[in-house]
């Protein structure tokens, strides 16, 4: 008989963990979280932890928000599922599409729903192909991303991702996918001033387009407004708007991946809002439902949408979409989250408390391991180095940051360890300055213990 109530599952080899050293988790077992409230979670051993990473930078509204649970319950009782194929729809998904068009940059007028960020990026790549094929520009095939960019793990999106560990053994990137250097100031290939980084990025984009045969061969440029999984790399002010303009001049589409930055994380509802950037396409996920239910989306310009409507030949459907496109329960959850973002002014809280977090991280610089401190809103990182003065890195890989992450956990704090010894912090947007002070105290203790 199955004893579900009393057995403690470990599934050390049955459950295949994403982005995990599999041999290690087979040996040690998983870290199992069982409950959450506000900015805190509890693990199976009863340890309470401050969640300094909002799950996977997604639980923006914090844990235990009963009104979101209630919205899901009501929708599940009323209509748990409705297809969006063949012209069917459901009310929450339609309302959510209207809300997202209202809230997002003016250029974005239409919404295609997905289940998360990876399939939003993948759908974007397919929609771009479709767009240029049906508008008689089938040679516009190449796409360009940034080194250290992250655009999920779909077969195509993982190639667009500019992190070599996502390519290794997967035969990626694909032949039509290319990268230019990141705007990474701390280890810059362009120089250290804002102007050098911005002009360097534009020059690199122009050079890459020329190398690929010119604008007639290149479809799009993709970027995150702040690079997340590449190590929280914040571009100089003006960079996003400058790249948008450069793409317009080059006649290539400008795609912004706001999967992390969307829904308040950087201090505006969308990071594009900081510089009034109007992209051609935008991908969103994570904060859309705050992790309470899976959902993502692609937001499209009217020009692109009109091309889909006016497809050739006219009597064929737009043959793309998922069983769960526009899922009513996720849409109801997203609507409840949007209400919370607006009512509790969470983007503003991210701005104010984010500034406090950054100041606190700056104060940790007296520790010689801390080489760089960076962030925007409640999206921040420190880069640990062997030598603060020369910026000499530790051995490449996850060694030191992984150790700090483990020590942080022992001290009651969840942080993210990135490659190149970067530690990321992205707490729920409801976090208070007091919570942040506690997080900083625990992080300082963890770094000290790791030495
Ligand atoms: N794009 C960005 C910028 C992301 O950070 C992520 C995930 O972290 C994705 C896409 C992929 O999203 P998902 O993990 O929901 O597939």
From TrEMBL:
Keywords: Aminotransferase, Pyridoxal phosphate, Transferase
Domain of life per record: Bacteria
GO MF term (any one): transaminase activity
Annotated Pfam families: Aminotran_3
InterPro entries attached to this UniProt entry: Aminotrans_3 (IPR005814), Aminotrans_3_PPA_site (IPR049704), PyrdxlP-dep_Trfase (IPR015424), PyrdxlP-dep_Trfase_major (IPR015421), PyrdxlP-dep_Trfase_small (IPR015422)
Cofactor(s) required, per the database record: pyridoxal 5'-phosphate
Record-linked PANTHER family: AMINOTRANSFERASE, AMINOTRANSFERASE CLASS-III
Recorded family membership: Belongs to the class-III pyridoxal-phosphate-dependent aminotransferase family.
Protein name (Swiss-Prot/TrEMBL): Aminotransferase
Taxonomic source organism: Mesorhizobium alhagi CCNWXJ12-2
